[in-house]
Amino acid sequence: MQLSAERPGMSLLPLISPFIVLLILTLVGCATNASRQSALPKTPTSVFQTGQNIIQPESLLTLTAEQRAEFMSFFESEAQAEYAPRERVFNYLARDIGQFRFDGANLPATTALATKTGNCVSLALVVAALAKAVDIEVAYRASYSEPMLGFRDDLALSSNHVQSYVLAPKKNANSTYSQRDAVIIDYLSDPLDRVGEMFDGQHFLAVVYNNLAADALLAKDPSKAYWLSMKALELDPNYSPSVNLIAVIYRQQGDLASARQWFEHGLKQPKNSVLIVGNYLRLAEQKKDVALQKRLQALMEVTDDDNPYAWYYLAEQFRKKREFTQAAKFYQKLVNVAPYLHHVNLQLAKLYVELGQERKAVDVLKQGEPYAYDASSRERYEKKLSMVR
Questions:
Q1: What is the helix (H) or strand (E) element at residue 21, kind and residue range?
Q2: CA torsion through residues 171, 177, 178, 182, sign
Protein backbone atom coordinates (compact mmCIF):
# COMPACT_ATOMS: atom_id res chain seq x y z
CA MET A 1 0.00 0.00 0.00
CA GLN A 2 1.30 3.45 -0.86
CA LEU A 3 1.16 6.67 1.10
CA SER A 4 0.91 10.11 -0.41
CA ALA A 5 1.89 13.60 0.58
CA GLU A 6 0.28 16.61 -1.01
CA ARG A 7 1.08 20.29 -0.78
CA PRO A 8 -1.34 23.04 -1.80
CA GLY A 9 -1.34 23.30 -5.58
CA MET A 10 0.40 19.95 -6.08
CA SER A 11 -1.54 17.28 -7.96
CA LEU A 12 -1.21 13.56 -7.45
CA LEU A 13 -1.78 10.52 -9.61
CA PRO A 14 -5.35 9.41 -8.80
CA LEU A 15 -5.54 5.93 -7.30
CA ILE A 16 -8.37 4.17 -5.51
CA SER A 17 -8.23 5.03 -1.82
CA PRO A 18 -8.79 2.52 0.99
CA PHE A 19 -11.24 3.31 3.73
CA ILE A 20 -11.86 2.83 7.41
CA VAL A 21 -14.90 0.73 8.21
CA LEU A 22 -17.40 2.57 10.37
CA LEU A 23 -20.97 2.18 11.36
CA ILE A 24 -23.27 4.26 9.23
CA LEU A 25 -24.26 5.56 12.64
CA THR A 26 -20.91 7.34 12.76
CA LEU A 27 -19.74 10.35 10.84
CA VAL A 28 -16.42 12.14 10.66
CA GLY A 29 -17.53 15.76 10.91
CA CYS A 30 -16.19 19.21 11.67
CA ALA A 31 -14.99 20.49 15.03
CA THR A 32 -17.55 22.34 17.09
CA ASN A 33 -17.35 25.22 19.52
CA ALA A 34 -17.21 23.85 23.06
CA SER A 35 -18.90 26.97 24.40
CA ARG A 36 -22.13 25.89 22.68
CA GLN A 37 -22.27 22.47 24.28
CA SER A 38 -25.29 21.41 26.32
CA ALA A 39 -25.44 18.99 29.24
CA LEU A 40 -25.53 15.31 28.31
CA PRO A 41 -28.72 13.38 29.14
CA LYS A 42 -28.82 11.74 32.57
CA THR A 43 -29.91 8.22 31.66
CA PRO A 44 -29.47 4.97 33.62
CA THR A 45 -26.16 3.14 33.17
CA SER A 46 -26.88 0.10 35.33
CA VAL A 47 -27.37 -2.03 32.20
CA PHE A 48 -23.75 -1.34 31.18
CA GLN A 49 -20.90 -3.11 32.96
CA THR A 50 -18.47 -0.80 34.74
CA GLY A 51 -14.73 -1.24 34.96
CA GLN A 52 -14.32 -1.52 31.20
CA ASN A 53 -10.70 -1.42 30.03
CA ILE A 54 -10.87 1.83 28.04
CA ILE A 55 -7.61 2.83 26.38
CA GLN A 56 -6.48 6.36 27.26
CA PRO A 57 -5.57 9.04 24.68
CA GLU A 58 -1.90 9.07 25.68
CA SER A 59 -1.70 5.34 24.95
CA LEU A 60 -3.09 5.93 21.46
CA LEU A 61 -0.43 8.55 20.72
CA THR A 62 2.66 7.28 22.58
CA LEU A 63 5.65 5.79 20.75
CA THR A 64 8.01 3.29 22.34
CA ALA A 65 11.43 4.59 23.39
CA GLU A 66 12.99 2.76 20.45
CA GLN A 67 10.48 4.17 17.95
CA ARG A 68 10.98 7.71 19.24
CA ALA A 69 14.79 7.42 19.16
CA GLU A 70 14.76 6.09 15.59
CA PHE A 71 12.45 8.87 14.44
CA MET A 72 14.46 11.63 16.15
CA SER A 73 17.68 10.31 14.64
CA PHE A 74 16.10 10.53 11.18
CA PHE A 75 14.40 13.88 11.84
CA GLU A 76 17.63 15.56 13.03
CA SER A 77 19.91 13.95 10.44
CA GLU A 78 22.01 16.05 8.07
CA ALA A 79 20.17 14.51 5.10
CA GLN A 80 16.89 16.07 6.31
CA ALA A 81 18.28 19.52 7.00
CA GLU A 82 17.03 20.94 3.69
CA TYR A 83 13.41 19.93 4.42
CA ALA A 84 10.81 21.76 6.48
CA PRO A 85 9.88 19.92 9.70
CA ARG A 86 6.45 18.92 8.36
CA GLU A 87 8.12 17.39 5.26
CA ARG A 88 10.51 15.36 7.41
CA VAL A 89 7.53 13.64 9.05
CA PHE A 90 6.30 12.51 5.65
CA ASN A 91 9.82 11.54 4.54
CA TYR A 92 10.14 9.30 7.59
CA LEU A 93 6.98 7.41 6.71
CA ALA A 94 7.85 7.40 3.01
CA ARG A 95 11.00 5.34 3.67
CA ASP A 96 8.75 2.30 4.07
CA ILE A 97 6.32 3.38 1.37
CA GLY A 98 6.08 -0.12 -0.08
CA GLN A 99 5.54 -1.80 3.29
CA PHE A 100 2.78 0.18 4.99
CA ARG A 101 -0.25 -2.00 4.33
CA PHE A 102 -3.88 -0.99 4.67
CA ASP A 103 -6.31 -3.14 6.66
CA GLY A 104 -9.50 -2.29 8.51
CA ALA A 105 -8.14 -2.38 12.06
CA ASN A 106 -8.21 0.62 14.41
CA LEU A 107 -4.71 0.43 15.91
CA PRO A 108 -2.81 2.72 18.33
CA ALA A 109 0.23 4.51 16.93
CA THR A 110 2.78 2.15 18.50
CA THR A 111 1.19 -0.97 16.98
CA ALA A 112 0.48 0.60 13.61
CA LEU A 113 4.07 1.84 13.27
CA ALA A 114 5.57 -1.45 14.43
CA THR A 115 3.47 -3.60 12.11
CA LYS A 116 3.09 -0.98 9.33
CA THR A 117 -0.58 -1.85 9.07
CA GLY A 118 -3.89 -0.27 9.95
CA ASN A 119 -6.66 1.85 8.53
CA CYS A 120 -6.71 5.60 7.83
CA VAL A 121 -7.28 6.42 11.49
CA SER A 122 -4.33 4.21 12.48
CA LEU A 123 -2.13 6.04 10.00
CA ALA A 124 -3.40 9.39 11.31
CA LEU A 125 -2.50 8.30 14.87
CA VAL A 126 1.04 7.47 13.70
CA VAL A 127 1.32 10.91 12.08
CA ALA A 128 0.00 12.56 15.25
CA ALA A 129 2.47 10.66 17.46
CA LEU A 130 5.43 11.58 15.26
CA ALA A 131 4.35 15.21 15.06
CA LYS A 132 3.82 15.33 18.82
CA ALA A 133 7.42 14.17 19.35
CA VAL A 134 8.74 17.26 17.53
CA ASP A 135 5.97 19.69 18.58
CA ILE A 136 4.31 20.08 15.17
CA GLU A 137 0.58 20.78 14.98
CA VAL A 138 -1.65 18.45 12.95
CA ALA A 139 -5.17 19.08 11.66
CA TYR A 140 -7.55 16.62 10.02
CA ARG A 141 -10.17 16.46 7.31
CA ALA A 142 -12.83 13.92 6.46
CA SER A 143 -13.23 12.83 2.86
CA TYR A 144 -15.88 10.67 1.22
CA SER A 145 -15.62 8.47 -1.83
CA GLU A 146 -18.15 6.11 -3.38
CA PRO A 147 -20.58 4.84 -0.75
CA MET A 148 -19.64 1.34 0.37
CA LEU A 149 -22.38 -0.19 2.49
CA GLY A 150 -22.80 -3.53 4.17
CA PHE A 151 -25.20 -4.79 6.80
CA ARG A 152 -24.79 -6.84 9.97
CA ASP A 153 -27.81 -7.58 12.12
CA ASP A 154 -29.77 -4.29 12.19
CA LEU A 155 -26.69 -2.11 11.67
CA ALA A 156 -25.44 -0.64 8.42
CA LEU A 157 -21.69 -0.46 7.86
CA SER A 158 -20.12 2.32 5.87
CA SER A 159 -16.67 3.69 5.03
CA ASN A 160 -15.27 7.12 5.71
CA HIS A 161 -11.75 8.44 5.22
CA VAL A 162 -9.48 10.74 7.26
CA GLN A 163 -6.55 12.82 6.01
CA SER A 164 -3.79 14.31 8.20
CA TYR A 165 -2.57 17.87 7.57
CA VAL A 166 0.92 18.39 9.08
CA LEU A 167 0.96 22.16 9.48
CA ALA A 168 3.55 24.88 9.11
CA PRO A 169 3.87 27.30 12.04
CA LYS A 170 1.23 30.02 12.29
CA LYS A 171 2.04 33.22 10.40
CA ASN A 172 0.07 35.14 13.00
CA ALA A 173 -2.17 34.38 15.97
CA ASN A 174 -5.30 34.41 13.81
CA SER A 175 -4.10 32.04 11.09
CA THR A 176 -6.69 29.38 10.26
CA TYR A 177 -5.84 25.86 9.16
CA SER A 178 -6.64 26.64 5.53
CA GLN A 179 -4.29 29.67 5.57
CA ARG A 180 -1.26 27.64 6.66
CA ASP A 181 1.03 25.58 4.45
CA ALA A 182 0.64 21.87 5.09
CA VAL A 183 1.73 18.46 3.95
CA ILE A 184 -1.24 16.11 3.59
CA ILE A 185 -0.37 12.55 4.60
CA ASP A 186 -2.82 9.94 3.41
CA TYR A 187 -3.27 6.64 1.73
CA LEU A 188 -3.53 7.67 -1.91
CA SER A 189 -6.98 9.09 -2.46
CA ASP A 190 -9.08 9.87 -5.48
CA PRO A 191 -9.23 13.57 -6.44
CA LEU A 192 -12.97 13.11 -7.01
CA ASP A 193 -13.48 12.36 -3.30
CA ARG A 194 -15.70 14.90 -1.56
CA VAL A 195 -13.96 16.54 1.40
CA GLY A 196 -15.54 17.80 4.59
CA GLU A 197 -14.45 20.54 6.96
CA MET A 198 -11.14 20.50 8.82
CA PHE A 199 -11.00 19.73 12.53
CA ASP A 200 -8.50 19.66 15.38
CA GLY A 201 -6.76 16.93 17.34
CA GLN A 202 -9.28 16.86 20.17
CA HIS A 203 -12.10 16.22 17.72
CA PHE A 204 -9.97 13.64 15.90
CA LEU A 205 -9.56 11.65 19.12
CA ALA A 206 -13.34 11.69 19.51
CA VAL A 207 -13.49 10.15 16.03
CA VAL A 208 -11.03 7.46 17.13
CA TYR A 209 -13.06 6.56 20.22
CA ASN A 210 -16.22 6.50 18.14
CA ASN A 211 -14.53 4.02 15.79
CA LEU A 212 -13.51 1.85 18.73
CA ALA A 213 -17.08 2.02 20.03
CA ALA A 214 -18.37 0.86 16.66
CA ASP A 215 -15.91 -2.06 16.79
CA ALA A 216 -17.18 -2.99 20.26
CA LEU A 217 -20.82 -2.86 19.20
CA LEU A 218 -20.11 -5.12 16.23
CA ALA A 219 -18.34 -7.47 18.64
CA LYS A 220 -21.59 -7.70 20.68
CA ASP A 221 -20.16 -5.71 23.60
CA PRO A 222 -22.67 -2.86 24.15
CA SER A 223 -21.16 -1.96 27.54
CA LYS A 224 -17.74 -1.28 26.08
CA ALA A 225 -19.35 0.53 23.13
CA TYR A 226 -21.23 2.77 25.57
CA TRP A 227 -18.18 3.72 27.65
CA LEU A 228 -16.03 4.32 24.57
CA SER A 229 -18.75 6.59 23.20
CA MET A 230 -18.84 8.48 26.49
CA LYS A 231 -15.06 8.89 26.27
CA ALA A 232 -15.54 10.43 22.82
CA LEU A 233 -18.04 12.89 24.28
CA GLU A 234 -15.63 13.70 27.10
CA LEU A 235 -13.19 14.83 24.39
CA ASP A 236 -15.80 16.59 22.26
CA PRO A 237 -19.20 17.00 23.97
CA ASN A 238 -20.80 18.10 20.70
CA TYR A 239 -19.70 15.09 18.65
CA SER A 240 -23.05 14.01 17.24
CA PRO A 241 -21.97 10.57 15.89
CA SER A 242 -21.27 9.39 19.44
CA VAL A 243 -24.57 10.84 20.66
CA ASN A 244 -26.25 8.93 17.86
CA LEU A 245 -24.39 5.72 18.69
CA ILE A 246 -25.40 5.89 22.37
CA ALA A 247 -29.03 6.39 21.34
CA VAL A 248 -28.82 3.32 19.11
CA ILE A 249 -27.23 1.29 21.92
CA TYR A 250 -30.11 2.19 24.26
CA ARG A 251 -32.61 1.32 21.54
CA GLN A 252 -30.97 -2.07 21.07
CA GLN A 253 -31.14 -2.64 24.83
CA GLY A 254 -34.89 -1.98 24.74
CA ASP A 255 -34.68 1.27 26.72
CA LEU A 256 -36.61 3.42 24.24
CA ALA A 257 -37.15 6.26 26.71
CA SER A 258 -33.40 6.73 27.19
CA ALA A 259 -32.81 6.33 23.46
CA ARG A 260 -35.32 9.10 22.83
CA GLN A 261 -33.52 11.43 25.27
CA TRP A 262 -30.24 10.91 23.43
CA PHE A 263 -31.82 11.39 20.01
CA GLU A 264 -33.44 14.62 21.20
CA HIS A 265 -30.08 15.74 22.55
CA GLY A 266 -28.52 14.96 19.17
CA LEU A 267 -31.03 17.16 17.38
CA LYS A 268 -29.84 20.11 19.49
CA GLN A 269 -26.21 19.76 18.44
CA PRO A 270 -24.68 22.57 16.36
CA LYS A 271 -23.75 19.98 13.71
CA ASN A 272 -26.37 17.26 13.93
CA SER A 273 -26.37 14.52 11.32
CA VAL A 274 -29.19 13.48 9.06
CA LEU A 275 -28.46 9.96 10.33
CA ILE A 276 -29.59 11.00 13.82
CA VAL A 277 -32.90 12.01 12.29
CA GLY A 278 -33.06 8.75 10.29
CA ASN A 279 -32.34 6.55 13.30
CA TYR A 280 -34.74 8.52 15.48
CA LEU A 281 -37.41 8.01 12.80
CA ARG A 282 -36.93 4.24 13.17
CA LEU A 283 -37.66 4.57 16.88
CA ALA A 284 -40.74 6.69 16.15
CA GLU A 285 -42.00 4.02 13.74
CA GLN A 286 -41.31 1.33 16.35
CA LYS A 287 -43.38 3.27 18.92
CA LYS A 288 -46.04 4.08 16.30
CA ASP A 289 -45.72 7.74 17.29
CA VAL A 290 -47.33 9.41 14.25
CA ALA A 291 -46.76 12.98 15.46
CA LEU A 292 -43.06 12.32 16.02
CA GLN A 293 -42.76 10.62 12.63
CA LYS A 294 -44.23 13.68 10.89
CA ARG A 295 -41.92 16.00 12.81
CA LEU A 296 -38.84 13.97 11.89
CA GLN A 297 -39.83 13.55 8.26
CA ALA A 298 -40.19 17.32 7.96
CA LEU A 299 -36.82 17.81 9.68
CA MET A 300 -35.18 15.31 7.34
CA GLU A 301 -36.20 17.45 4.37
CA VAL A 302 -34.28 20.49 5.63
CA THR A 303 -31.33 18.86 7.43
CA ASP A 304 -28.01 19.31 5.64
CA ASP A 305 -25.12 16.86 5.64
CA ASP A 306 -21.82 16.84 3.75
CA ASN A 307 -21.50 13.06 4.02
CA PRO A 308 -22.78 11.29 0.88
CA TYR A 309 -23.21 8.04 2.82
CA ALA A 310 -26.02 9.59 4.85
CA TRP A 311 -28.13 10.28 1.78
CA TYR A 312 -27.23 6.94 0.21
CA TYR A 313 -28.29 5.04 3.31
CA LEU A 314 -31.61 6.87 3.65
CA ALA A 315 -32.37 6.54 -0.06
CA GLU A 316 -31.79 2.80 0.12
CA GLN A 317 -34.03 2.44 3.17
CA PHE A 318 -36.93 4.18 1.42
CA ARG A 319 -36.31 2.30 -1.84
CA LYS A 320 -36.51 -1.05 -0.02
CA LYS A 321 -39.85 0.06 1.46
CA ARG A 322 -40.94 0.97 -2.09
CA GLU A 323 -41.42 4.58 -1.05
CA PHE A 324 -39.94 5.73 -4.33
CA THR A 325 -40.75 9.44 -4.03
CA GLN A 326 -38.81 9.73 -0.77
CA ALA A 327 -36.01 7.51 -2.09
CA ALA A 328 -35.67 9.70 -5.19
CA LYS A 329 -35.40 12.83 -3.00
CA PHE A 330 -32.47 11.45 -1.06
CA TYR A 331 -30.76 10.01 -4.14
CA GLN A 332 -31.09 13.46 -5.72
CA LYS A 333 -29.43 15.02 -2.67
CA LEU A 334 -26.60 12.52 -3.05
CA VAL A 335 -26.23 13.28 -6.76
CA ASN A 336 -26.16 17.01 -5.96
CA VAL A 337 -23.23 16.67 -3.51
CA ALA A 338 -21.35 13.91 -5.35
CA PRO A 339 -22.20 13.88 -9.08
CA TYR A 340 -19.20 11.63 -9.81
CA LEU A 341 -20.96 8.62 -8.23
CA HIS A 342 -22.34 7.65 -11.61
CA HIS A 343 -23.84 4.32 -10.47
CA VAL A 344 -26.12 6.37 -8.18
CA ASN A 345 -27.40 8.25 -11.23
CA LEU A 346 -28.38 4.91 -12.75
CA GLN A 347 -30.32 3.97 -9.61
CA LEU A 348 -32.00 7.36 -9.46
CA ALA A 349 -32.99 7.08 -13.13
CA LYS A 350 -34.71 3.75 -12.39
CA LEU A 351 -36.69 5.42 -9.60
CA TYR A 352 -37.76 8.28 -11.86
CA VAL A 353 -38.95 5.75 -14.44
CA GLU A 354 -40.93 3.94 -11.70
CA LEU A 355 -42.51 7.31 -10.86
CA GLY A 356 -43.32 8.02 -14.51
CA GLN A 357 -40.89 10.93 -14.63
CA GLU A 358 -38.95 9.98 -17.76
CA ARG A 359 -37.70 13.52 -18.42
CA LYS A 360 -35.96 13.58 -15.04
CA ALA A 361 -34.57 10.10 -15.73
CA VAL A 362 -32.96 11.31 -18.97
CA ASP A 363 -31.55 14.41 -17.24
CA VAL A 364 -29.94 12.47 -14.41
CA LEU A 365 -28.46 9.93 -16.86
CA LYS A 366 -26.96 12.75 -18.91
CA GLN A 367 -25.53 14.23 -15.71
CA GLY A 368 -23.81 10.98 -14.70
CA GLU A 369 -22.64 9.81 -18.13
CA PRO A 370 -19.44 11.96 -18.24
CA TYR A 371 -18.22 10.25 -15.05
CA ALA A 372 -18.61 6.73 -16.50
CA TYR A 373 -14.98 6.25 -17.48
CA ASP A 374 -14.85 2.53 -18.24
CA ALA A 375 -16.39 0.94 -21.34
CA SER A 376 -18.93 -1.25 -19.53
CA SER A 377 -20.31 1.72 -17.54
CA ARG A 378 -20.60 3.85 -20.65
CA GLU A 379 -22.43 0.98 -22.38
CA ARG A 380 -24.88 0.74 -19.45
CA TYR A 381 -25.58 4.47 -19.73
CA GLU A 382 -26.19 4.26 -23.46
CA LYS A 383 -28.62 1.36 -22.99
CA LYS A 384 -30.48 3.13 -20.18
CA LEU A 385 -30.80 6.34 -22.16
CA SER A 386 -32.05 4.42 -25.17
CA MET A 387 -34.61 2.55 -23.05
CA VAL A 388 -35.90 5.67 -21.30
CA ARG A 389 -36.21 7.59 -24.54
A1: strand 20-23
A2: positive
Q: Which domain holds residue 268?
A: 238-305
Q: DSSP of 79-123, one letter per residue?
A: GGTTS-HHHHHHHHHHTTTTT-EE-S----HHHHHHHTEE-HHHH
Q: What is the pTM of this model?
A: 0.78
Report CA dihedral (359, 381, 334, 323) to the nearest 10 degrees.
Answer: 60
Both 283 and 386 in a single domain?
no
Contact predicate 12/191, CB 8 Å: yes
Angle between helical axes of 256-267 and 240-252 (0-180°, round to 10) = 160
**Whether 4 and 88 share a structural domain:** yes
Q: For residue 229, is it within any domain?
A: yes
- For 75-128, how does the pLDDT look when each residue is reduced to its tens digit (9 = 90+)? 999 999 999 999 999 999 988 766 777 777 889 999 999 998 888 889 999 999
Q: Helices (H), strands (E): how many in the chain? A: 16, 9
Amino acid at 247: A
> Which residues lie below 8 Å from residue 179, measured CB to CB, with a gap of 6+?
171
Is 40 inside a domain boundary?
A: no
- 188 and 335 part of one domain: no
Total domains, the chain:
3
Residue 11 identity: S
State how far the Cα of 366 lies from the Cα of 200, in Å rounded to an integer. 40
